[in-house]
Amino acid sequence: MDRGTLRLALTVGALVLTLLAGFALGRVNAGGDPAPGAGSAPASGAGDHTHPPGTGPHEHPAGAAAGPGGAEAGGLSVSAGGYTLVPAATTFTAGRGQDFRFQVRGPDRRAVTGYAVVHEKPMHMIVIRRDLGGYQHLHPTMAPDGTWSVPLTLPSAGVWRAYADFTALDATGGQHPSTLGVDLVVGGDYQPRPLPAPAREATVGGFTVTYEGTPQVGASQPMLFRVFTGGNPVTTLEPYLGAYGHLVVVREGDLGYVHVHPEPELSGGAVKFWLTAPSPGSYRIYFDFQVAGAVRTAEFTLTVP
User: Fold this and answer.
1) What is the pTM of this model?
2) pLDDT surpassing 80 at residue 160
3) Whole-number pLDDT of residue 72
4) 15, containing H or E segment
5) Is 162 exposed, middle or buried (0-12, 13-18, 19+ CB in 10 A)?
6) How high is the pLDDT of residue 213?
């Protein structure tokens, strides 16, 4: 066989092998496992579906998808997750207004100056007395150096708990939701009040507020709050801080804190939340709502077996 004939035979043989390999590969793909991604549903992103907003705002900041999940009580310490609440002073005089100033310091021990806006505010502050009376929902303002300030009047003697509820931003824009708590002391004769008996109806400012639903430990349950006046349902609830209501739940004893945001729309005229009780025990519930530009708070006692 001359050199030209040999070259032709090798070329034809290579073509035959290529065709056979392609045929075999086609049979493998047709009868075996599909190629990656073929025949399977694409992964669902957060934008593909919505969940009811979560219980610990701090697990689900505003704008993030959140499903009903287990709540964890926060606000039990001045430091958590690398962030520390540093108040300028913790002593107050009963009935005298003064500015409460504080910083939140990050893992680098410097004052945090970047915060995400959650429900229209970068910082929510809840203040209650340790017997779960005297509830206040405040919104401090921040100076450029990271020092927060809010006018605060504590009307009676005793130990009060201040919760700083925020989402810090790190240098890369990462969000770190947290709730830190600190005790404030007011000198004088302190007479703690017993927790009111559990009830599903409360009155405030001429309104009657009721709720339906029974929170459980380890299972998210719906809670629906309805507002009435003169025996008729109020149909003019207004958004307050970006929602039709806000729910703060505080556990008796250690004052463990949960802040719950509702579903974005009313449910049959009711404000609907999803709540998982952190543990058995007694709780005080504070439901903020707004009508005709005025914010009111209905308070309830709840016992979780």
Assistant:
1) 0.77
2) yes
3) 82
4) helix 3-31
5) buried
6) 95
